[in-house]
Write a structure and sequence with these properties.
The complex is a heterodimer. By secondary structure, chain A is of the alpha/beta class. Helices cover 35% and strands 15% of the residues of chain A. In chain A, strand 5, helix 6 and strand 6 form a beta-alpha-beta unit. In chain A, helix 1 crosses helix 6, helix 3 packs across helix 4 and helix 4 crosses helix 5. The longest helix of chain A has 15 residues. Chain B is α/β, with parallel strands linked by helices. In chain B, the strands form 5 sheets. Chain B has a 7-stranded mixed beta sheet with strand order 11-10-12-13-15-14-21, sandwiched between helices. Chain B has a 6-stranded mixed beta sheet with strand order 3-4-2-5-6-7. In chain B, helix 2 links the parallel strand 5 and strand 6. Chain B starts with a strand and ends with a helix. Classes of the chains: A alpha/beta, B alpha/beta. Chains A and B meet through strand 2, helix 2, helix 4, helix 10 and helix 11 of A and helix 7, strand 10, helix 9, helix 10 and helix 14 of B. Strand 2 of chain A pairs parallel with strand 17 of chain B. The structure holds thiamine diphosphate and iron/sulfur cluster (SF4). The site of iron/sulfur cluster has 11 residues of chain A, from loops.
């Protein structure tokens, strides 16, 4: 019995979820492997983590990992994750989605989660395409991209998500490549350890709908920056400089130690409203009436 | 002359202080032991547009405004015209003297042009005190002791500077002394000596209900007429270890509440019309992923931005049907502060018991208007009932038995036990997609059908837990009124007045729109003339209820869509018109 109730995790296998339905070769496999390894190495047990996703190929993530999980709706993963984290800070909340999900439909929440500096780890599998809906342009797709809904070429310019999170106030900003799980795992570990909003954009090729952005393309075009940079402005400048050269910047761009949102509100680390509530009894009538008397 | 039922309106432009003067008066009347109801009319703007507060008081519990007013204070002299027709014969009008030369065209009222602005400027160098001077005058007219109003001023200005309070007291005295010199007609209002009552708005009651129910997470985006819930909770939630958060939009707010509920908290969001549009997708999510959630929705008038500060019952269709797919939900509709409290409390129990979204559907006239109530209905009947939520010990039982915990376990009643994420030994997996019992995505026929049936099963018994309709009047009356929300008071008063005219009427007030007490409603309305009172132009309530009777029966819709609640006379005249046509 004793042994049964021992929840120690001894192997990365403990994080194994369902068999994935991703296409063989999908970039998201690398991210999954890196996250499992990162959690294991950090000693975060599946019971103490919650993976929250939106909708998209990449958002199927929670099915493939053995942690608490919530597969939510398109673009709303950050608000759901924020609610989870505020309710129970003891949970390690990892947010996983796609670039369409997070930078398109969920763009507003992305900016505000960064601004709030809530202690979440947000991993975006950026394949520069909408994959689950079978190949349409995403906010990260290049100008002129010809896809199903843009047969004459997209007229929208792409965004650089890391510049958005940096300028919105994220306190950990990085970009990894799913073809390089060794480095990616390190970024994820740093991001998870970081107290505050961690945004990790991951170049994650879609081998089915986006042959333009293949593993080879990324291997040839990424440039590892020598971060993290000391100042936000510097990180922004270095990222822009790299793009100007026609290269894609990767690496940890920026890390800032700053009081995160929950700490600011509750004044203590690891506060769990869920736990606190367990000790509460129903209000007495007198207590309730006192609230009315003081209402003005 | 002694008045049993007494209505006064204080009107002006936004910024004139009509609301404050009105609140002060209402609170003083409450302390006299009178029941009061207030109806706020204010624009969606901060300054310069017409605003008024109507206060009605009675020795008995009342639920709505009346057809006429006994007195009007017109702080903005022109306001007198918009309200003139509402003043009863021998009623009182208090206006600024600068306006006295105007001919009102009514010689059956007592007109008191007073140096309101002049005195305020002379005494305080600020016109704003004109409202309290006028209130003093009114106090004398209705024989209210100045001390009573002073106590009320103290209550409302608690925490303000000594000078402000003193000036208000002086302004009040000035009003009384003006009245002593000028008064032609004096009234007396009934007094009862039972001050142990509360003066509350529906919104305040909802906030109290949420706290009492153990809600510890509230996320919203401000919108009239629901914001006071947020403000109230923002003040008190931290005292109970909880949190309120103002989100970037309504979409974020409902999804945060869903996240908090997943994590194990009782969570709520609140909104109104346009905000509810935005929350719709997440209501589908809560239904599909079986996340308990309470959504407070205070209706206003019109589609789009519409009438932000006025009332309506135009969101019935939306609330009942919003969401794609077969969305489970319960919809409770309070009419009073007591019910706003009670239904909010019960909504949390229902949401957790059935693991569905529960909507408390209010409207501006219920949410923002204040009423004097006897007591908060908070007794042993209201308990935290968290449904099938597994304790840590119960989770260990699973583990010891070698059972795998399944979030969507197929059970007899369709309700699966909820484990709290973070409990050692179990993995809690929620999913917005169709799924297997353990929460993994699955679109195969077998599980799809079982999951749909599971969600259907949950709905079968909800009717046992929701507020039943309220019937009032004679069961044999051949005519019956049906209504929801703010129609309560006007319907009730219509019965009495119709009876005096020889028309026998009863009423049925629906307090739960979903699930609907169809059999009960059918049995009480069968073979009667049914008049459905509703504040919309599409007959939404009638269309929804009509399936109960089919075409066999006379069912009429009495509609109003001005942005204001019904007045009894409006229901009465419609009923008479319809009956006359039918005969
Ligand atoms: C509100 C809403 N709109 C549209 C969709 C359809 N939809 C599903 S996934 C998706 C795009 C996914 O793209 P991305 O987030 O980049 O993820 P990927 O599939 O590329 O991993 C869209 C548009 C939806 N599920 N919900
Ligand atoms: S379609 Fe693209 S993104 Fe989706 S699983 Fe296949 S490779 Fe991955």
């Amino acid at each position: 019995m004793e042994k049964l109730l021992n929840f120690e995790i001894t192997s990365v296998k403990a994080y194994e979820g369902k068999k994935s339905t991703w296409c063989p070769g999908c970039g998201d496999f690398g991210v999954l492997a890196a996250l499992k390894q990162a959690l294991f190495e950090l000693g975060i047990s599946p019971y103490d983590a919650a993976v929250i996703s939106g909708i998209g190929c990449s958002s199927k993530f929670p099915d493939y990992i053995n942690t608490n999980a919530f597969h939510t709706i398109h673009g709303r993963l950050l608000p759901v994750a924020t609610g989870v984290k505020l309710a129970n800070q003891k949970l390690n909340v990892i947010v996983t989605g796609g670039d369409g999900d997070g930078y398109g439909i969920g763009g507003n929440h992305f900016m505000h989660a960064a601004r709030r500096n809530i202690n979440l780890t947000y991993i975006v599998m950026n394949n520069e395409i909408y994959a689950l809906t079978k190949g349409q342009v995403a906010p990260t797709s290049p100008y002129g991209f010809v896809k199903g809904t843009t047969p004459y070429g997209s007229k929208d310019n792409p965004i650089e998500p890391c510049l958005i999170s940096l300028s919105a106030g994220a306190t950990f900003v990085a970009r990894g490549f799913s073809g390089d799980t060794k480095n990616l795992k390190e970024y994820l570990k740093e991001g998870i350890k970081h107290k505050g909003f961690s945004h990790i954009d991951v170049l994650s090729p879609c081998v089915t709908f986006n042959e333009e952005y293949s593993y080879d393309y990324f291997r040839e075009n990424i440039e590892l920056l020598n971060g993290p940079f000391a100042r936000r402005e510097e990180a922004i400048a270095k990222i822009m400089e790299t793009w100007r050269k026609g290269k894609i910047p990767v690496g940890i761009f920026y890390v800032e130690e700053k009081k995160h949102y929950e700490l600011d509100i509750f004044g203590k680390e690891d506060y769990s409203i869920v736990e606190e509530f367990k000790t509460q009894k129903m209000l007495s009538k007198e207590e309730l009436l006192k609230l009315i008397e003081n209402k003005k | 002359m002694k008045l049993k039922d007494f209505s006064v309106r204080i009107a002006g432009l936004a910024g004139d202080g009509s609301l404050l003067a009105g609140e002060v008066l209402a609170y003083a009347l409450k302390r006299r032991g009178l029941y009061t109801v207030s109806v706020r009319d204010f624009p969606s703007n901060i300054r310069g547009l017409p605003t008024s507060l109507t206060i009605r008081a009675n020795v008995e519990r009342i639920f709505s405004w009346n057809d006429y007013i006994d007195a009007l204070i017109a702080l903005e002299p022109k306001a007198v015209y918009s309200h003139l027709k509402d003043i009863r014969i021998e009623g009182v009008i208090i206006i600024d003297e600068e306006f006295k030369s105007e001919n009102l065209g009514r010689d059956d009222v007592y007109l008191y042009p007073l140096p309101l602005r002049k005195k305020a400027r002379e005494m305080f160098k600020k016109e704003i005190f004109k409202n309290i001077i006028a209130l003093g005058f009114l106090g004398y007219v209705f024989n209210i002791e100045p001390e009573e109003i002073k106590n009320s001023i103290m209550f409302y200005l608690k925490g303000r500077s000594g000078e402000i309070i003193e000036n208000n007291m002086k302004a009040l005295e000035e009003g009384y002394s003006l009245a002593k010199n000028l008064l032609k007609k004096r009234y007396e209002i009934e007094k009862s000596i039972d001050p142990g009552r509360y003066y509350l708005s529906g919104n305040e009651a909802v906030a109290l209900g949420a706290i009492a129910a153990g809600c510890r997470f509230f996320a919203a985006y401000p919108i009239t007429p629901s914001t006071e819930v947020f403000e109230f909770l923002a003040k008190y939630m931290p005292k109970f270890g909880g949190i309120t958060i103002q989100c970037e939009d309504e979409i974020a707010s409902i999804n945060m509440a869903i996240g908090a509920s997943f994590a194990g908290l009782r969570a709520m969001t609140s909104t109104s019309g346009p905000g509810m549009d935005l929350k719709t997708e997440a209501i589908s999510l809560a239904s599909m992923a079986e996340v308990p959630l309470v959504i407070y929705h205070a209706q206003r008038g019109g589609p789009s931005t519409g009438l932000p500060t006025k009332t309506g019952q135009e969101d019935i269709n939306h609330i009942l049907f919003a969401g794609h797919g077969d969305v489970s939900r319960a919809v409770l509709v309070p009419s009073t502060p007591e019910e706003s409290f009670e239904f909010t409390f019960r909504a949390f129990n229902i949401a957790e018991k059935y693991q569905i979204p529960v909507i408390v559907l209010s409207e501006q006239a219920v949410s923002q208007n204040q009423q004097t109530i006897d007591d908060i209905p908070y007794d042993g009947n209201l308990k935290w009932e968290r449904g099938k939520i597994l304790s840590e010990e119960e989770v260990f039982e699973y583990v010891k038995a070698g059972k795998v915990y399944e979030r969507y376990e197929l059970t007899e009643d369709g309700i699966s036990p909820r484990a709290i994420p973070g409990t050692k030994g179990v993995i809690v997996r929620y999913n917005s997609n169709e799924k297997t019992p353990d929460g993994f995505i699955d679109e195969e026929n077998e599980y799809r059908v079982q999951m749909v049936q599971k969600r259907l099963k949950k709905l079968e018994r909800i009717i046992e837990d929701v507020p039943e309709p309220e019937f009032y009047g004679n069961k044999n009356a051949p005519n019956i009124l049906i209504g929801i929300g703010s129609s309560l008071g006007p319907m009730r008063e219509s019965l009495i007045r119709l009876k005096n005219e020889g028309i026998e009427m009863s009423y049925l007030r629906i307090r739960t729109l979903m699930p609907l007490h169809e059999d009960y409603i059918y049995s009480l309305t069968y073979n009667k003339n049914v008049f459905i009172c509703e504040l919309n132009s599409f007959s939404q309530l009638k269309n929804y209820l009509s399936r109960i009777w089919g075409r066999k029966q006379n069912v009429y819709s009495i509609k109003k869509y001005s942005g204001f609640p019904f007045k009894p006379s409006e229901i009465i005249s419609e009923v008479k018109k319809i009956l006359k046509k039918e005969n």
